[in-house]
């Protein structure tokens, strides 16, 4: 929720500043972004690598800090990977063109040999001459077959390499749109998808619903049991969401412990029913601390679901779902509220 977003960002910001100070790191924007991401736990692999470095030497030096940023956060990292793959694809295409050029020359030479043989057979005056011509045709045919077999093999290898490079591009594209912790869409992908869904709903008069869900008392849980267990909870919720959404839905990690689901083509009642199924699925799972086997009980979540109306923008649709989520929290948590009408959007205090 908006109030919780503000509180979380302040806490994460304060932690980031404390990490900067304890590591004597200049408060440049990219250094702050690195430690803010670490504090928020948005990138588990980054946290793992930093924790290993801190365990080994107690702090990060400026070179390590820059390396972590370049490897995990720099916008240039994906551009560089795309550039490398694109360059490799271009090289493979040039290989194929070269192979086809060789093939064209080979076939052209074979055609000349056949025409020469045909002319020679017409003018042949003895069976010996005819036999020599036929033997040359056989030899030329064997040579072409051999070259074509090599060409087919080389084209097959090039095709395999191009397909592998295509898969690499798809992996880069997926990474750029995905929250690494939960496997759901990230905030950027959600924002772009909601813009598109609202445009389609407006143009085609199609049903569109938006659900926002928030884990109840997550900050208390995180503070009590630690970030690693908190990450386990986020993964659990992400798994529950993926198990219940339909193929045409888009589920995203919207904020720290907040999730959003875009549901195109669903009525409000169907969308609410699905979000409530996710809520019940989460509470059914008992949490166990992996390191000790200790039972941590169960977590609950609250949700707000609303449906697009003609006058909506993406902002008003989100505001309405957010207000319904707040009402679900205020009225006892562990429930899902829905409504198509515009509620009172006065600022409300944050509820965990």
Automatic annotation (TrEMBL):
Which GO BP terms, alphabetically? cell adhesion involved in single-species biofilm formation; negative regulation of bacterial-type flagellum-dependent cell motility
Q: What is its EC number?
A: 2.7.7.65
Record's InterPro entries? Diguanylate_Cyclase, GGDEF_dom, Nucleotide_cyclase, Rev_trsase/Diguanyl_cyclase
| Organism superkingdom | Bacteria
Which Pfam family would be a valid example here? GGDEF
> What GO annotations for molecular function exist for this entry?
diguanylate cyclase activity
Query: From the record, what ranges are coiled-coil?
Result: none
List cellular component terms (GO): plasma membrane
Catalyzed chemical reaction(s): 2 GTP = 3',3'-c-di-GMP + 2 diphosphate
Residues in domain GGDEF? 206-341
Instruction: Spell out the protein name for this chain.
Output: diguanylate cyclase
Q: Which organism is it from?
A: Lutibaculum baratangense AMV1
